[in-house]
Amino acid sequence: MEQLVFYSLGLGAVIGALGVVTAKNPILSVLSLLWTFFCLACVYLLIGFEFLAVAQILVYAGAIMVLFLFVIMLLNLGTSEAADFDTARAMGRRLPLVLLVGCTLAALSILAAQQVGGTSDEARADLRSVGSLTDLAQVMFGTYLLAFEAASILLLAGTVAVVMLAKRERRKNAA
Amino acid sequence: MTVLLATLLKVLVIFGCLISAAGISTLAERKISAWIQLRRGPNRVGPFGLLQPLADGIKFMFKEEFVPPGKSRFLFILAPALAAVPAMMSVAVIPFTGRIAEIDGTPILGSVADLDMGAIFIMAVSGLGVYGIILGGWASNSKYPLLGGLRAAAQMISYELSMILIILAIVAMSGTLNLREIADAQNDHTLLGFLPAWNVFLQPLAFVLFVICTFAETNRHPFDFAECESELVGGFHTEYSSMKFALFFIGEYCAMIVMACLTTTLFLGGASVPFWAEAPWFIGLGSFVFKAAAFMFLFIWVRWSLPRFRYDQLMALGWKVFLPLAITNIFITGLVLAL
Amino acid sequence: MDAYIEPLKALAPELLLTAAALGALVLDLLMRGRDSRFVGYFTLVSLAIVAIILMNRIGDEPTAAFGMVVVDNFGTFFKLFTVASLAVVTIFVLSDRNESHHHIGEYYFLLLGAAIGIFFMVSTNHLLLLMLGLELLSLASYALAGFHKGERKSAEAAMKYVVFGGLSAGVMLYGISLLYGLTGTLDLVEMAKSTGEAMPAGLAGQLTTSAVPVALAMVLVLAGFAYKMSVVPFHFWTPDVYEGAPTPVTTFLAVASKAAGVAALLRFLGALFLGPDVQSVVAEYGASVGQLLAILAAVTMTLGNLSAMRQTSLKRLLAYSSIAHAGYILIGVATMTGAGFEAAMFYMAAYYFMNLGAFGFVLYFEGTLGSDSIEALKGYGFKAPLISIAMVTFLVSLTGLPPTIGFYGKYLLFKEGLDAGMYWLVGVAALNSVVSLFYYFRIAKMLFLKEPASGSVPRQPLFAGLLAVLCVLTIYFGLLPDAIQEFVRNCLLI
């Protein structure tokens, strides 16, 4: 049962991802990506990572993708511009390459998964125990406290960079 | 088996009540607005016009379906559903009352799902409601709806930030994200010997900010820029008719109800009754409904009393006043808790 | 409480830099429109304080903090390197005539932020922190490359950098996630130490059962380092970004950012393959990684040097030359020995003097002539003799001729390469040095052997003085390299 759910979610995510690159309409692309995120969130739920699932929805679906939609609408990217480049056909023409890269990555992932042997019941129980909020908090603010703080500096730098780049320039007085 | 049945029953009752409550709210809106404006309001259908929502519903079903050409037909039809579903989903974690009964050692609680992440879940799901509005506005292929949709998106994202930060302060006080536990945490002691330890007294700033945020989050007056009749004709739903329009409407009222319930849970001790800790569950339920209804009244009252903001004022308020205040609130809360 | 305060002391330089970065931002806000140079001086003072703290640390016993940061001499060496290059870059900014001093607070904030990223990168054995540091550095670099946002080339540089950086970071993360999946840890020392009996199997266990996933993970992670060092085939961004970015930023990218890539790579390889508790299977695997790096080194230096010959823009030429130098440095890395690493570190030190000098010249020259084309150099040596002579010294050093530090650095690299038995690689490198002679000396020829053009050049004593000092040091350490060599030896990883 669990396997079935997992594979259908995986299939859903892959279809969504394909939709992102092949959809002619950028809005549909964004919605496909949203669908992919949703499937991923469900996968997280399946392995007991409730917080990660909710965070995925909250951050990616609730905020980031809305911004994407926003920008696409403001730029008014119609289908006309996207139609010049037909991703589906372009991918079709390079089908061997697409298949090669895809299959290589898939094969390697499967190989790696086998190496880890993480499908034992023990490993699963192990996994579930870190899914809870308390454990997550302990890991985040205990073991990885420094990485967490470093990430905050990273975000700050990102914010400053974006503000600097996006700020409207006043006309230079000197020039 | 009985547990499963009880849960199913709970689901049916709660969602049935939610939809009816949305209908009743539309009637209340019209009645109260009439009262405020010294009119009579609907009074022809049924006694005191009580059957008006039903009549409205039937009317919507028989209206003409219209899909504007040009943009995606699929998205145009999808949008109302996307607007209504998140609001209805988020009601699942609201604890309407305490423990109802116990079957085979499993307590039957007053919410559909007693999630550990309740508070975050509600924010995550209600945040999805914006897709319905923004897509509806875009798929209408017309400039007023598009503007309405974009405004709604910007507004909801901006205020969601402050809202989450405010909730964080409450969460820090009760040490849990579970809404039931948050409600319970407010009832285990009293302040100064007589005041219930509700967060509204402990976190007055957060309360005021949160209530105002809920107005912005549900696109209600004085922040209803998604519709904004005087500028945008009707905003994102200008092109919608028939049941699709009704779905937007139901979604909006459901969102209001959820926000009222959330405010009750976070700040007014949920289903508790002051000075009566041992109140049975139906009294608690009544108390909860009473508190939530008071907030619904506030929603309507404000709509018919205050003028609309200007859009830039709204954004400035969100980013330059609410966000800093919410962050300050977290800092103060953390400081007090640490000491 | 003490449990938190004590490790914070170990992080003093990072914390100070963060404070300085925020300070620069706020200071610019307070000084709005008045004296933007003040922010630069503030940055210089902060850097000096950090440098003093770091100097005091040299020779201390290695300590760890927060389970992630390793405070050791190796890290301190590269931190000092970063601070020193940043100080010079700051002086460049202060004397840059093209800089409008608009958003100067953000400029210094991003520079310091990039330095914090480097600090984390060079002092951790933990892949998570390594990645975060790398991203911090990259993010700040993207914005800095596009700092002149009104200019087409600057915007193009930022765009290309972002696309390339994002891709490489993704590739590297994928590799890291594979490594984590295979070994169950992100700590390199743990990874190399694990015997492979318990679950998860550890690197040793994985290598004995099936080496393919490990090889893939290794290649992907190395790709991330290769991008930071601009090693072929991850070098495509380098010429465009170096050309488009503001020249002080180019200097920073060419010197500090590249050094960070080298340092992180050295630490990665050192901890994984050359540490004291490494399983023998893993150590043997290190040798084959070394082979891969040797091939990369040969390709990189050849491609860099051949491309450099055809350039007409001085900045692009130096970009290709910096690619070639990444190849030389890789010789030392590829030997997979302590002595080889030492040679690579020494070469980085040499690289510091000669490349800062060369880019300083570009900045000066751009500021006075408004162009960086090699044609415009004609007769420049007669107009600005002092800095032109300095430039020739840097070029000599870049080529690797005596009596400069570049010569000694190359000598060390070649010697270690020969000791490790990589004769073919050293042969290729020697041939490459000959090739590089052509294009470096084309510049020198333009400077002095052509007819002087009319017009004069404004003087900038501070700037000229800085270049003169760098020039003198290039020769001084070339003749007496012992001081630096001693210093490097103190800071060795293994």
CATH superfamily of the largest domain in chain A: NADH-ubiquinone/plastoquinone oxidoreductase chain 6, subunit NuoJ
| Greatest chain-chain contact | A-C, 31 and 47 residues
Structural class of chain A: mainly alpha
**Helix proportion range of chain C:** over 70%
Uncertain regions of chain A: pLDDT < 50 for 5+ in a row? Answer: none
- What is CATH's topology name of the largest domain in chain A? Four Helix Bundle (Hemerythrin (Met), subunit A)
Strand-helix topology:
The complex is a heterotrimer of chains A (175), B (339) and C (494).
Chain A (H helix, E strand, L loop, with lengths): L1 H21 L3 H21 L3 H26 L3 H5 L3 H7 L1 H22 L4 H11 L1 H11 L1 H22 L9
Helix pairs in contact in A: 1-2, 2-3, 8-9
Chain B lengths: L1 H35 L15 H11 L10 H18 L10 E3 L2 E3 L9 H10 L1 H11 L3 H32 L4 H7 L4 E2 L3 E2 L2 H4 L1 H14 L11 H4 L9 H26 L13 H23 L7 H28 L1
Chain C lengths: L1 H9 L1 H19 L6 H21 L5 E3 L3 E3 L1 H23 L8 H19 L4 H19 L6 H32 L4 H6 L8 H8 L2 H18 L7 H8 L2 H27 L6 H29 L5 H21 L3 H32 L10 H4 L1 H15 L5 H15 L3 H26 L12 H19 L2 H9 L4
Helix pairs in contact in C: 2-3, 2-5, 3-4, 4-5, 4-12, 4-15, 5-6, 5-12, 6-7, 6-12, 7-10, 7-11, 9-13, 10-12, 11-12, 11-14, 12-14, 12-15, 13-14, 13-19, 14-15, 14-18, 14-19, 15-17, 15-18, 15-20, 15-21, 17-19, 17-20, 18-20
Question: How does this model look, in words?
Answer:
The complex is a heterotrimer of chains A (175), B (339) and C (494). With 175 residues, chain A is mainly alpha-helical. Helices cover 83% and strands 0% of the residues of chain A. Chain A folds into 2 domains: 2-127, NADH-ubiquinone/plastoquinone oxidoreductase chain 6, subunit NuoJ (Four Helix Bundle (Hemerythrin (Met), subunit A), Up-down Bundle), CATH 1.20.120; 132-169. The longest helix of chain A has 26 residues, at 50-75. The model of chain A has no long low-confidence stretch (mean pLDDT 78). Chain B has 339 residues and is mainly alpha-helical. Chain B has one domain. In chain B, strands 1-2 form a two-stranded antiparallel ribbon. In chain B, strands 3-4 form a two-stranded antiparallel ribbon. In chain B, a hairpin with a 2-residue loop joins β1 and β2. The radius of gyration of chain B is 20 Å and the shape is globular. The mean pLDDT of chain B is 83. Chain C has a two-stranded antiparallel sheet. By secondary structure, chain C is mainly alpha-helical. Chain C has one domain. The longest helix of chain C is centred in the middle third of the chain and has 32 residues, at 152-183. Chain C is built from 21 helices and 2 strands. Chain C has helices at 2-10, 12-30, 37-57, 73-95, 104-122, 127-145, 152-183, 188-193, 202-209, 212-229, 237-244, 247-273, 280-308, 314-334, 338-369, 380-383, 385-399, 405-419, 423-448, 461-479, 482-490; strands at 63-65, 69-71. In chain C, β1 and β2 (69-71) form a beta hairpin. Chain C is globular and about 70 Å long. Chains in contact: A-B, A-C. The A-C interface holds A 108, 111-113, 115-118, 123, 143-147, 150-151, 153-154, 156-158, 160-165, 167, 169, 172, 174 and C 11, 18, 25, 65-69, 100, 102-103, 106, 109-110, 113, 116-117, 120, 126, 128-129, 132-133, 135-136, 139-140, 142-143, 146-147, 149-150, 158, 178, 181-182, 184, 199-201, 206, 209-210, 212-213, 216.
